Amino acid sequence: MTKNLLDELKNLLQKDERLISDGELLKNKIIELALKIDKDLIELLLSDKQMKGVFFTEVGKATIFDKDKFIKFISNKQFLPDSYTAFKKKIGLVDEKDEFISEKADVVLSWPYKDCVLEGGMTKEDQKRDEIFWNETLAPDEISRLLDPKVFTNAKRIDKDGEHPLCHSELDSESCFKTDENGDIKDNLIIKGNNLLALHSLKKRFAGKVKLIYIDPPYNTGGPEDTFTYNNDFDHSTWLTFIKNRLEVAKNLLRNDGFIAITIDHVELFYLGALADEVFGRNNRVGIVTILHNPKGRNLAKFFSPNSEFMLVYAKNIEVAEFNRVIISEDVQKRFTEQDREGSYRYVPFMRARTVWAREKRPKNWYPIYISPDLKKITSEKKSGYYEVYPITNNGKEMAWKNIKETFDALNKKDYFIAKKENGKIRIYHKYREQQVYKNVWTDKKYQSEFQGTQLLKKLLGANLFSYPKSLYAVADTLKIMTSDDDIILDFFAGSGTTGHATLAVNEEDGGERKFILVEQLDNHIDVCLKRIHKVLQQSSRENDFVYMELAKWNENFVEKIEKAKTKEELKKLWEIMKEKAFLSYKVDIKTVDENAKDFEDLSIEDQKRFLLECLDKNHLYVNYSEIEDEEYGVSEDDKKINRAFYD
User: Fold this and answer.
1) pLDDT higher than 50, residue 228
2) Residue 609's Cα: distance from chain center in Å?
3) DSSP structure string for 122-159
4) What confidence tens digit (pLDDT) does each residue in 503-535 have?
5) Digit-coded pLDDT (tens) for 201-226
6) Average pLDDT over residues 535-557
7) Residue 596 phi/psi, 5° resolution?
8) Which residues of 550-569 are buried (b: 16+ CB within 10 A; e: fewer)?
9) Residues β-bridged to residue 108
10) Which of 1, 330, 497, 534 is most buried, by CB atoms within 10 Å?
11) Least confident of 317-331, 375-389, 505-519
12) pLDDT for the residue numbered 300
C-alpha cells in the first residue's frame, strides 16, 4: 500500500528548510506561511499531484488554494504531536471558531473525532484495541474504501417451512429478490455484519425509500459484561463518532416524509440530542418520548432509580412528515363504539364550550342550525317548523360551533351530524373518527420490558436467550403511528429482532405489507433474531418470508479467529497464516515483527491478541463489491449472481 496523505505531506514539507528545526517540522511556521499565501510554499504543494488534488480547486483556468482546509489539516493531532490542544480531554459545545461557550443561539456539538469515521464495530472485542479513526480530510481514500459497498454471501430465503435457495433460476438473476413494477426490492431482509458498512451497502437500492428507522443503540452506560453482549463502554468521544457515522448515512436512506426514532437512557441523552439536532436539523425534532419500561426501577441505585428511557423522534422533513390517525391506547379504543365503512368512530358535541371559543372570540362560528321536529333532518338553511339551535350552554353562555357555516355545509352529508333532545334542549353531535392525541409520556403496562420483552421472548423461544429485549408493543405502537401500507422499516441495531417481530405483528393486525430490514453484527444476536422471526412466521396466519445475507468476510475472519483463540500457540499459527493471506496494515513490517518474535512471545495472551488485531488493515474486513471478480477472494458464481441482482 502507498503511504497515506499525512506521511506524503510530511515528506514534501521537509524539502523546505524554513519549516524544519532540529529535524522536526514547525507547525506554527507552516501555518504562518499558509496564512500569508507564501509563494514558495504554494509552489511546493503544487509540485505534488496528490497535494494539488486535495488542497487546491480548479475554477475555470484558475487554481485556488484552500487555505482553511490546509491549515485544518496541519492542525490535526495526527499530523504533529503539539496540535492536539483545545480538545484534549475536553468535550463541549463550541462556536464556529472552535471556542467553547456556555450559552449561544447557534451551536454544534464538537469533540476530538467529530470529522472522522470510526473503523470499529460494536463488539466487546473492539474495546481490546486502540480505536482507529480515519479523518475525513486526511484520509479520504481510506474512508472511501472502507465504506465501499460490500459483497453479500450465504444468502437464503427463509419461510415458516425453513431455508430455501434465494435464486430460483440459474439464468435469471432478477428472480433472486421480490421486486415491484419499479424494480424496488420488496423483501424482508436480515443482514449480518458491521452495521456502518451494511448501511453504505444498502444505499444503492434503498436511498430515500425507508419510511421509519427505529434503533436501540448501545446506551454507553458501562454495564457489566454479563449483562450486555455488545460494547456498552465506549469512550465518550468514540461513542459520539460511532453514532454520528451511522446517523449520517441513515438520513440518506430515509424518505422525505420519513422518521427516525432512537431510544436512549439519561447517560448520553443530552449529547445524542445535540448530535441528532445537527444531523437531522433542530427544526425537524418531533419530540422526546419518555417510556416507563421498568416501574420497579433498580434496587441498588445510589441516587435516582432509573425506571424509564427516552425515545428521540426526528422527521427527515417536518414540513411533509405526518403521523397516522390511529389509536394505540386500549382505553381510548373502547370509546369508539360505532362502526361504518370508513372505520370506527363516536359522536361528540359539535359545540365548543371553552372560554376561548366564546361567541365574541369566534364570531364566524356563531350561526343557527335548523333541526326537523323528528330530529332526522339537519341544515343551516332556515326552515319553517324546524328547531333553531345556537351554541348556547345550559347556563346561557353563548359559545361557538367547531366549524364555520361553509365547513358545516360541506360536512353535512349522510349521518355525519345527529341531533338529540336532552333535558328539553336540542344538542348536535358529529362523527369523531378513531384517533387519539399522542402524549410524550408512555406509561401503559404493555411497554414494560420485563413482561413484554424478556418474558415474551422467553415464551416464544422456550428459553431466556437475550438480555433486556425491547417491549414488542413499544416498537409496534411506534410503527402504527409512523408507518402504513407497504412502508419499509429499518433497524440497524437489530438485537433480538423486536423490530422485525413488531413489523409482522402490525401487518397481521391491520393487513399492511410493511417490510423490515434488520442489521446485526453479533453471532448470538443473529442466532436469536433468526429463531425469533422464523417462529413468528410459523405462528402467523399470513404467508411471509425473509431473506438472510451476510457481508462477505476477509480480514474479519482473522478478527474472529484471534478473538476465539485460547492459547498463545494458536495465535502464533494465526500470525503465520495472516502473513500469507491477510491484508496487513501498511505500518506493519513483517520482517521486524519476526525478528522480535521473542518479545511477542513474552506478551500476555490479551496483549498478543491486541497486537495481531492492530496488524490487520480494517479497510479489508469485508470484500468490496468492486473487487467481486478478483480471484483472490474466491467469490462463488452463485454469490456473484445474488450480488448482481442486488446492486445492478
Assistant:
1) no
2) 31
3) SSGGGGGS---EEETTT-HHHHHHHTS-B-EEEEEEEE
4) 999 999 999 999 999 999 999 999 999 999 999
5) 999 999 999 999 999 999 987 654 43
6) 95
7) -110, 35
8) bbbbbbbebbebbeebeeee
9) 94
10) 497
11) 317-331
12) 74
Which residues lie below 8 Å from residue 519, measured CB to CB, with a gap of 6+?
A: 190, 191, 192, 193, 195, 198, 199, 490, 491, 492, 493, 494
399/389 Cα distance (integer angstroms): 12
What per-residue string of b and e applies to 102-121 under the rule 16 or more CB within 10 Å gives b? Answer: eeeeebebbbbbbbbbbbbb
Say what the alpha-carbon torsion angle 141, 147, 148, 152 is, to the nearest 10 degrees. Answer: 150
Residue 443 sits at the vertex; the CA angle it makes with 442 and 444, to the nearest 5 degrees, is 105
Grid cell at residue 341: 365503512
Cα–Cα nearest to 435, from 287, 349, 335, 514: 335
Please compute the mean of the pLDDT values over residues 616-643 and round it to a whole number.
91
% residues pLDDT > 70 (the chain): 89
Sheet containing 378-379: give its strands across. Answer: 378-379, 369-371, 387-389
Q: How many CA atoms lie within 13 A of 435 on its CB side?
A: 10
Q: Is the dihedral of CA 615, 617, 618, 623 positive or negative?
A: negative
Tell whether the model's pLDDT for residue 9 goes beyond 80: yes
Per-residue pLDDT averaged across 96-100, rounded? 53
Our measurement of the distance from residue 239's CA atom to the centroid of its chain's CA atoms, rounded to an integer in Å, reads 14
Lowest-confidence segment of 151-160, 278-287, 301-310, 480-489 by average pLDDT:
301-310
**Does residue 485 come out as left (phi exceeding 0), alpha (psi in the -120 to 50 range) or beta?**
left
CB within 8 A of 451, min separation 6: which ones?
445
- Ramachandran category for residue 462: left, alpha or beta (phi over 0 → left; psi -120 to 50 → alpha): left
Identify the helix (H) or strand (E) that includes residue 74.
helix 67-75
Q: Are 471 and 455 in contact (CB under 8 A)?
A: no
For cell 462477505, what's the residue?
A: 552
- What is the average pLDDT across 387-403? 95
Q: How far apart are CA 566 and CA 536, in angstroms?
A: 37
pLDDT, position 398: 96
Integer Cα distance of 22 and 14 in angstroms: 12
**C-alpha pair distances (Å), 205 with each of 55, 438, 491:** 33, 33, 16
Name the residue among 372, 374, 401 with its Cα closest to residue 387.
372
Angle between helices 568-581 and 605-615 in degrees, nearest 10 = 10
